DNA sequence: CATGAATGAGGTTTCATTCAT
DNA sequence: GATGAATGAAACCTCATTCAT
C-alpha cells in the first residue's frame, strides 16, 4: 500500500494544512472524473495551491490517489467499528453498519473519491484497489455467521452467498447513486433496501 | 441481380468485416481498461488492423466507444426480449432474465466492454452512458408490478424500491465479478443470489 | 549498448531519411551543448521535423544520444581500420591513424556530437560512454608493441605508458580544439604534435 | 581593537564558514555531475545546509559555480607560482609544475569541481570558463622559450606547438583520470608521461 | 542567518488525429 | 480501403528561485 503513512516529519503547521487541502481537493476531482482524466491542474486549483506544490507533498499523481484511497479506508473502517461496537443482534448491526456507511458516502468527499477510484480495475491503481472489496466480503460473512448464532439470521442461509449478496447490493447502490446524483441519494437508497434484506435474511417471522 | 452490380457490395462486405473486427477488438480493450487509458494503438492491434484505418470506419475514439455501447445495448435487449417472451410468472421471468443477462455478460466481450464503459461517469462518454441504467429500472418496475398481479410477488412490496433493489444487485454483481475474474464468475454469482431474492419478493409461501 | 541497432524494420523510405536527419540534427546540438542542456525543441528544429516525431523513431532523448554515440563509434572505427590496413611501419600507421581521426573529428558532425557526449561522465549516459576510452588505449598499446617489433619504436618504451600518452594527447587535443573553434583546428593541432611524438617514440635515430 | 567592535565580525565569521562549506559541497557535486544536472538540493545537502540558505550567500546556482571555478584558479595558480619560484632549469620546473598540479587535482575537491565545470563549453558558464585554457598555453610557451635559453629544451622546437602539446597532454590526462577513477590516478599518470616528454623536448642528450 | 514551504516556467513525453503514399 | 509516418496540443513532472516564519 504505497501512499499510506507519512514520509517526512512535515515540520511546519502550514505544510500539514496544505497536505490535507490537497487530499480534499484531489478527492473532489477523483470523485467526479476517472483517474486518468483527472488533471493535475484541477487537483491543484481545487486545493487552492500551485501545481508544483503538489510535488512537495506527494511524489506523483498516483501517490495522491493512493493517499485518497488510504484515507477513505480509514474513515470507512472508523465508521464501521464505531457502529459494530454498539449493541444489538447481528442483523441489526449489519443493517445499521450499511446505513452508517451510506451516510458517510453521501457526506464525505474523500470517501467518494476513494470509492470512485476503486471502481476502476485495470488502472495503474489496480493493486492498491482490489483488496478492500475482499475485506468487506469477509466482514459481512462474519456478521452473517454471528447472526445465525444469535438467531437474527435464518440458519439455512449460505454465509458466503449472503455476504456477497449484501456486498453487491451496497456496491450497486453506490454506482447507481453516483450516476443519479453524485451519491446524495445513497442513504435513502440503502434504507429503502432494508425491509427486503430483512425479509431475505431474517427467520421466517414469528 | 447481374454481376456488374456486385462490385460495390463486395467492397462493402469487406468493410463490414473490418468494422466488426474493430468493434470486437475495441470492446476487448475497453473491457480491461478505462476509456481514457485505452490506447488507439491497442484498439488497432487487438483488431488486427492499422491505426490509421480506424479513422476510415469511425470518426474518433469516442465514436468507437459509442458503437461498442450501442452493440452491447442491442445484445442485452435481444437477450432480454427473448427471455421475457417465454411463459411463466413474472418473478420467474425476472430471475431468468437476470440469469440470461449474467450469461451474456460472462461470455460476450462486447457486452463486457459496454458495461465497463458505462461504469465511468464524468467521462466524455457520460451522455450516451447514463440512460440505460434508468431503462433497466423501469423494466424491473414493470415486472414487479406484473408479479404483484399474477401473484408471484408479495403485494406489499414497494415497486420502485424493489426495482432498484434488483438493479443494484445486478450492477453490484457486475462490479464484483469484474474485479474478481473479469466477469467469468458472473453467472454463478447471480444464481447464488436467486434464493435470497425469491424469499425477499415472493409471497410468504404457503 | 542500448540505442544501437534497428528496432523496427522501418518500412518506408521516408522514415529512414527522417531517422538520419534526426541523428544528424541531434549530433549538431549535442556537439554544441551538454546533454542535459540540449533541448528537444532544438533537436527537432535542427532536424527539420516536429518534436513529437522524434518519438516515433526513438524512445527517449537518451536513446537518441546513444544512437549518436553508436554512429560516431562506427565511423571512427571505420576510419581507423581503413588507415591501419595500409602499409608502413607501426609508428607511421599510428600517426596517420590519429591524423585521419583528427580529420574525421573536424569534418563530421556526428563524430563531434558523439565525442562531446562522451566527455560528460556522471551523466545518465555514463554507461554507454565509458567503454570507448579503454578501447582506444588497448589499440594504441598494440600498435606500440608492433612498433617495437618492426623497429619503428624505441625498444625501451613502456607500452602501457606510451599508449596512454598518445591517448591523452589525442583527447586533450579534442578538448582544446572544441574550446578554440569547435574542432576546426583539430587536424592542424594533431599535425603540429607529430614531430614531438616521433622524437618521443622513435629510436634515437642514426 | 576594543571588544565592542567584534560583534559584526563574529557574525561574519560564521557566514564565512557557511560560505566555505557551500563552495566545498558544491565543488563535490560539480566534480561528479555536469553543471546542468547538479541539483541545488544536492549542493545544499552536501554542504550540510538548507536550500534556501544558499541564496543568502550567493545570488544563483551560476554564481556558485563561478565561485568554485574562481577558487580552483586561485589554488592552481598558487601551486604553480610556488613551484615556479623554486630553482632549476626550465624543463625541470615545467615538469614539476605539472606534477604539482596533478597532485592538487587528485587531492582537492574544489579543483576537481572547477576543472569539470570548465570542460563544458556551450553552457551558461562558457564565458568565465574559456580564458583559463589560454592562460595555461601562454605560461607553457614562456617556459618553453625559457628552456631554449637555458639549454634545457632543444632549440629547434616550435614554442607554440610545444606549449599546446604540453597542455593537451595535461588536459587529456585529466579527462582520462576522471573517467577512470575520479582523478585519483592523475599523479601517477602524469608521472608516467615524464620520460616521454623529456625525450621529446630535451636536447639530443649529451 | 537559516529553514522549510511554495511558485511557475519550462522540459520531456504521450497520444488522438491527420497526411502522403 | 489501408498503412506507416508525422503533427501538435496537452499532460505530468522537475527544479531554480522566492517567500513567510
Please tag this protein with its features:
DNA-binding; transcription cis-regulatory region binding (chains A, B, C, D); mainly alpha; about 210 residues; homotetramer; TetR family transcriptional regulator (chains A, B, C, D); elongated
Written account of the structure:
Four copies of one chain form a homotetramer. Chain A is an all-alpha fold and 206 residues long. Chain A has a domain at 60-201: Orthogonal Bundle (Tetracycline Repressor, domain 2), CATH 1.10.357. Chain A has nine helices and no strands. The radius of gyration of chain A is 19 Å and the shape is elongated. Chain C binds chain D through residues 32-37, 119-124, 130, 133, 157-158, 160-162, 164-165, 167-173, 175-176, 178-179, 189, 192-193, 195-197, 199-201, 204, and chain D through 32-37, 119-124, 130, 133, 157-158, 160-162, 164-165, 167-173, 175-176, 178-179, 189, 192-193, 195-197, 199-201, 205. Chain A binds a DNA duplex (21 and 21 nucleotides) through residues 10-12, 14-15, 18, 39-41, 49-57, 60-61. Chains A, B, C, D: Keywords: DNA-binding, Transcription, Transcription regulation. Chains A, B, C, D: GO terms for molecular function: DNA-binding transcription factor activity; transcription cis-regulatory region binding. Chains A, B, C, D: Residues 39-58 bind DNA.
CATH A-level architecture of the domain at 60-201 in chain A: Orthogonal Bundle
- What is the CATH level 1 assignment of the domain at 60-201 in chain A? Mainly Alpha
What name goes with the CATH superfamily of the domain at 60-201 in chain A? Tetracycline Repressor, domain 2
Unreliable parts of chain A: 1-8
As for the CATH topology of the domain at 60-201 in chain A, it is Tetracycline Repressor, domain 2
**Basic shape of chain A:** elongated
DSSP strand count of chain A: 0
Characterize the largest beta sheet of chain A: strand count, sense, and whether it forms a barrel: none
Oligomer: homotetramer
The number of helical runs of chain A is 9
Please provide the ordered H/E string of secondary-structure elements of chain A: HHHHHHHHH
Classify the helix fraction of chain A into a percent range. over 70%
Share in β-strands of chain A:
under 5%
Report the average pLDDT across residues of chain A: 90
- Helix/strand class of chain A: mainly alpha
- Which radius of gyration of chain A do the C-alpha atoms yield? 19 Å
Distance between the termini of chain A: 48 Å
Amino acid at each position: 500500500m504505497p501512499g499510506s503513512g507519512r514520509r517526512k516529519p512535515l515540520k511546519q503547521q502550514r505544510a500539514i494544512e496544505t497536505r490535507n487541502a490537497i487530499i480534499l481537493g484531489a478527492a473532489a476531482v477523483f470523485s467526479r472524473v476517472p483517474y486518468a482524466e483527472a488533471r493535475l491542474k484541477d487537483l491543484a486549483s481545487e486545493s487552492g495551491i500551485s501545481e508544483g506544490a503538489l510535488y512537495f507533498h506527494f511524489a506523483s499523481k498516483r501517490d495522491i490517489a493512493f493517499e485518497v484511497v488510504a484515507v477513505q479506508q480509514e474513515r470507512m473502517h472508523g465508521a464501521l467499528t464505531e457502529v459494530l461496537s454498539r449493541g444489538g443482534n447481528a442483523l441489526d448491526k449489519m443493517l445499521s453498519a450499511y446505513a452508517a456507511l451510506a451516510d458517510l458516502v453521501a457526506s464525505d468527499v474523500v470517501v467518494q473519491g476513494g470509492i470512485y477510484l476503486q471502481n476502476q480495475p485495470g488502472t495503474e491503481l489496480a493493486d492498491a484497489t482490489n483488496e478492500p472489496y475482499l475485506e468487506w466480503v469477509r466482514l459481512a460473512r462474519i456478521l452473517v455467521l454471528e447472526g445465525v448464532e444469535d438467531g437474527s439470521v435464518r440458519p439455512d442461509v449460505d454465509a458466503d452467498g449472503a455476504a456477497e449478496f449484501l456486498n453487491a447490493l451496497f456496491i450497486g447502490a453506490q454506482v447507481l447513486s453516483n450516476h443519479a446524483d453524485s451519491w446524495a441519494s445513497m442513504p435513502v437508497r440503502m434504507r429503502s433496501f432494508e425491509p427486503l434484506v430483512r425479509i431475505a435474511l431474517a427467520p421466517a417471522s414469528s
